[in-house]
Input
Amino acid sequence: MGRVAQFFNALCDVILPPICHICRNFIPNAGTLHICPDCHDRLPCAASPLCPTCGIPFAGAGADHRCGACLTHPPHFDSARAPFLYEGTIRDLIHAFKYDRRTHLRRPLALLILEGLGEALIEQRLDLIIPVPLHRSRLRQRSFNQAALIGNLLSRRLSLPIMPDTLFRNRPTEPQINLPAAERRQNVKGAFTVHIPEHIAGKRILLLDDVMTTGSTMDECAKELKDSGAAAVMAVTVARTAR
Output
């Protein structure tokens, strides 16, 4: 790095000091993520062994294997992955992003997806990104679709087109987090429609959202995408619950 660049970076650190998104402490040589090493080490990773279909992690050691739910009722998506469990600091970051309107957090959340899943995303030879849509009433209330904001950054980093208007939520649904697991599938059944199926015919799709709980929303979206001609659907979220 040249002296001019070093001086410019040092000046930026004085004017806009890099602060950890989690602990709010100053980070020297912060890079692009802006999460300090201590906080990064404490992130709740969703590691193997896990189900290769839905991505749910299993307790203890062992090899990856399909869970009972995916064996008895295979989902419509081909695979689902999240780099983190929906707990602790990751849950706090997602809540601040989605409910406190701290939209600048889309950047670290997108970068964390790439850090944890980058190789897997490349191996899937994906063609495009489709964020899970909000109903227009929810979009008016929140003013942004969190999945689309994260998707815009992934689109640039992965050099994949993003099509936020391809999948449409045709009726309002109760937030899944408010419902018991048994009611979530019925809540989203028939709630999605594909606009212009020709745009996704034969395509390998990255279906993107912030959190996956039971997987009912992702499954219903994947069903509609597959019924409309998609060749494959990989469901990706920042975090997932361990059920």
Q: What stands out?
A: Residues 44-240 form a domain with the Rossmann fold fold (CATH 3.40.50.2020). The chain is about 40% helix and 15% strand. The longest helix spans residues 106-123.
